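User: Here's a structure from my thesis project, written as structure tokens. My advisor, Dr. K., wants to see whether a designed sequence matches the one we expressed. Can you design one independently, without my sequence as a hint?
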């Protein structure tokens, strides 16, 4: 017994230490993501608003979920409904992440599907102020494609000075009509509302208190996840309905996005450099965001499979369960790393922020540099 107790003690210490490290990395990394979007005007688009929502969910995992997971792992004696609320909070932010990923996938699909190429001969006029604003900082990126939003069009060119002839334009009127500021906020609100409703469902009766004779007669108990949470809720409602099905839908969306982009590039106007640059950029962005989705699935599916095995009367060692929990929580610190490696503007802004922190430069002074470093 003393040996087993010592072993369990060492296992708990290791588990808690890793949880703390993951939590700190998740908080720092995702705060940095939000800071990057705030400082970089070119990242303040619909997709990145949903990425900020995902970052907020990951910050909540670091601030709330991991400390609660440590408390639950120690089996501290608390009131039944206090323990149930803590376990529900673990689920809310998981579903907030999956709903944010779904919103990102839908937004990228609409952007690719509803953006069409206009004729190169279409006459276009811009005010001097529009031209001045649109080409600010272009000297720093001469010879590199600049994709500038002008009204309802995306203007692409390799020339840092606007050409006399009308450039290739990508009409995005329908996309802009759909993704209005009001609808973006409604979508964000809906994502979080669904997450809270799904995560808090056990508080309204789908828990061990109302279905187990033993738990019905007790008020305080050692707080353990399985002591208060019904596994049929975890398997059928939380996993299959609100994690697995959205994952399948998102995979189908990204496959369709890649199919659309491939078709666009293979059509007659594929020889246009501007068209190739536009859809090439969309392809790279879609690949980066699909990688985020893949890592989410890779991190959360093992724990969900463990829950399924447990529900169908299987035995899973505690060490395996703890590894599954740690892997799911580690997903919260992965996304900032993906953004840094796969999205150039994120990497550039990360470096500018780190440089400013080293020399104690005020963050406001970063803005001109960031605008020059944008696409």
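Assistant: Designed independently from the structure alone:
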């Amino acid at each position: 017994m003393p040996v087993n107790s010592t072993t369990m003690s060492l296992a708990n210490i290791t588990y808690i230490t890793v949880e703390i490290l993951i939590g700190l990395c998740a908080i720092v990394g995702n705060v940095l993501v939000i800071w990057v979007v705030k400082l970089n005007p070119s990242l303040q688009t619909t997709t990145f608003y949903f990425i900020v929502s995902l970052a907020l969910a990951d910050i909540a995992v670091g601030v709330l979920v991991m400390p609660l997971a440590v408390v639950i792992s120690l089996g501290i004696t608390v009131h039944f409904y206090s323990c149930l609320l803590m376990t529900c909070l673990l689920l809310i932010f998981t579903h907030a992440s999956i709903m944010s990923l779904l919103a990102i996938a839908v937004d990228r699909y609409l952007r690719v599907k509803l953006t069409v190429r206009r004729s190169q001969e279409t006459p276009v006029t811009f005010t001097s102020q529009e031209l001045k604003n649109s080409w600010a900082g272009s000297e720093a990126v001469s010879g590199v494609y600049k994709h500038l939003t002008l009204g309802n069009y995306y203007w692409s060119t390799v020339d840092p000075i606007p050409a006399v002839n009308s450039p290739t334009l990508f009409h995005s009127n329908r996309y802009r009509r759909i993704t209005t500021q009001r609808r973006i906020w409604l979508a964000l609100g809906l994502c979080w509302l669904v997450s809270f409703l799904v995560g808090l469902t056990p508080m309204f009766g789908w828990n061990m208190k109302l279905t187990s004779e033993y738990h019905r007669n007790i008020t305080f108990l050692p707080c353990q996840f399985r002591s208060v949470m019904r596994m049929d809720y975890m398997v059928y409602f939380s996993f299959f309905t609100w994690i697995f099905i959205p994952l399948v839908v998102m995979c189908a969306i990204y496959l369709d996005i890649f199919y659309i982009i491939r078709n666009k590039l293979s059509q007659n106007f594929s020889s246009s450099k501007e068209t190739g640059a536009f859809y090439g950029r969309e392809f790279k962005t879609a690949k980066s965001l699909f990688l985020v989705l893949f890592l989410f699935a890779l991190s959360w599916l093992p724990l969900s499979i463990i829950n399924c095995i447990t529900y169908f009367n299987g035995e899973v060692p505690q060490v395996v369960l703890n590894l599954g929990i740690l892997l799911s929580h580690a997903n919260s610190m992965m996304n900032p790393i993906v953004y840094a490696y796969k999205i150039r503007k994120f990497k550039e802004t990360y470096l500018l922020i780190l440089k400013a922190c080293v020399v104690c430069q005020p963050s406001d002074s970063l803005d001109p540099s960031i605008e020059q470093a944008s696409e």
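When you compare it with your expressed construct, this may help: Confidence is low (pLDDT under 50) at residues 1-7, 118-169, 368-375.
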